[in-house]
Design brief:
The complex is a heterodimer of chains A (114) and B (113). With 114 residues, chain A is mostly beta strands. Helices cover 0% and strands 53% of the residues of chain A. Chain B is built from no helices and 12 strands. Helix content of chain B is 0%, strand content 53%. In chain B, a hairpin with a 6-residue loop joins strand 5 and strand 6. Chain B is globular, with a radius of gyration of 14 Å. Classes of the chains: A mainly beta (114), B mainly beta (113).
């Protein structure tokens, strides 16, 4: 399995500000993803973080709101921009491990926007 | 249309009872993967199992077992002799090829001591 860490683990932010979440993996992985889990809900894919190119966003998510970087095969960041209370969620980094198609998740970042 | 349906929103059982969590999926692909994850109150998502569409063999891991039936598009998860530590939200998920992982809405399991 892959060991995934996220920073910060939680944060409380004010409306209108931005927060950058970091995801670090202990081994090189081809595919990294960012998910959002709103309170009491299931997980929704925000985007696939592509190494060396722009992220691929799912319907309903845009780069201006959720810019993503992936400078190498072990690290990615997700920024939540111009936050509103509706952005209060858990944000999870995920990686596809090797050829097994096993997909692992980081511990999540619990974001509260006031 | 929902790709993954977990009809049971919440289940409560008394400790040591067996419990089965249902998962029904929908796909037109012949190659796909099914997953179960556990999300305890701490929030992290714990990988439990991956099963590919070509392998219908049921699997047992300790108190956990999974029943994959392509004929009914189901991938059910049974916990035998449940324990309080099993209390969590359990998600079933479907991956079609290299595409997105589609999650069900989850089943919240509460094991009462």
């Amino acid at each position: 399995s892959a060991v995934i860490s996220q920073k910060p683990s939680r944060d409380i932010c004010q409306r209108g500000t931005s927060l950058t979440i970091q995801c670090q993996v202990d081994s090189q992985v081809t595919m990294m993803f960012w998910y959002r889990q709103q309170p009491g809900q299931s997980l929704t894919l925000i985007a696939t973080a592509n190494q060396g190119s722009e992220a691929t966003y799912e319907s309903g998510f845009v780069i201006d709101k959720f810019p993503i970087s992936r400078p190498n095969l072990t690290f990615s960041t997700l920024t939540v921009s111009n936050m509103s209370p509706e952005d209060s969620s858990i944000y999870l980094c995920s990686v596809l491990h090797g050829r097994s198609y096993e997909q692992y998740f980081g511990p999540g970042t619990r974001l509260t926007v006031t | 249309a929902q790709k993954v349906t977990q009809a049971q929103t919440e289940i409560s059982v008394v400790e040591k009872e067996d419990v089965t969590l249902d998962c029904v999926y929908e796909t037109r692909d012949t190659t796909y993967y099914l997953f179960w994850y556990k999300q305890p109150p701490s929030g992290e998502l714990v990988f439990l199992i991956r099963r590919n569409s070509f392998d219908e063999q049921n699997e047992i891991s300790g108190r956990y077992s999974w029943n994959f039936q392509k004929s009914t598009s189901s991938f059910n998860f049974t916990i035998t002799a449940s324990q309080v530590v099993d209390s969590a939200v359990y998600f079933c998920a479907l991956k079609e090829g290299a595409n997105n992982l589609f999650f069900g809405t989850g089943t919240r399991l509460t094991v009462i001591p």
